[in-house]
Amino acid sequence: MMQPIITGILSYGMSGRVFHAPFIAQSRYFELRAIVERSRKQAKADYPDIISYDSVEAILADPDIELIIVNTPNDTHVAYAKQALLAGKHVLIEKPFAPTKKEAEELFALGEKVGKKVLPYHNRRFDSDFLSLKYVLDKGFVGKPIELHLRFDRFKPELSPKIFKETSKRAASGVLYDLGSHLLDQSIALFGKPKSVVKIKSKHRPHSRVDDYATLLLSYEQGLNVFITTSLLVANPQKSFVLHGDRGSYIKDRTDTQERQLMVGMKPDDAMYGLEDEQAEGLLTIIEKGQREDIIVPSLKGDYMLVFAHAFETIRNNAPYYVTPEQIIWQLDILSSVR
Description:
This protein is an alpha/beta fold. The protein has eleven helices and 14 strands.
């Protein structure tokens, strides 16, 4: 008989409310037992049967909880994950997993020592737009990949009210850690560890103390170059996936609908969940014998529930997790380096 994983969440801000609680609550593989709410008590309105704890210490003292979701400010991930592991809990850690490579290595080592799973949460491997890009690559439609551009554009000239994102003295702040970590994870998921990296970061918003623009150039073997760009000052967002190969090109907007659907209350078991809007398909262009052919590529269904399906299999059945420790180490080596 399948035994659900009893789960607690460390915060009920946007991350807990949108990206975690709906999936834990609806999955037959999990049971949502508790959420930490230090001040405003809102979770019980959505989940009447949960326990609302006042502190991290209180939720970690709950003997029934097996898995803790660490979705607190970036610079607290490592400390809270260590506390949870030492309390005998598995951990699922929001991005960025840790501020540095060294801290990530410490977390994985501690997990091994106490016999608990340390799982990175990288939900955007299950975005419909990224899954569609991966499909095009896997099928070899563009031939040998030569150049890939991954962008995450927003227009937010005002400083965020989330202080931890805007304070340079706090670890893992800035747009490269916030949005760039998604794109870097996607590149690593597709192609592995790059052989070299060029990094550019800069500040442009009035009074900004952290990077609000960043570019990475990842160079791989066989000549592939991946350009990652993220910015908080793009009024007209550009194509988010631009792939060129020796047989053709593939271009697609960032059109995954899951965050928007979850924000308005759609549940993960809704038949429309994860389906992109019409006219959001990618465009594949192939040149054969001098003739150009434009092909509309239907979008694949996005599904963040797959994160939790993988987590269950890893915790209960010791199956390999979809994000490896090596991939996280590579990612944080790039994010935290001064190169």
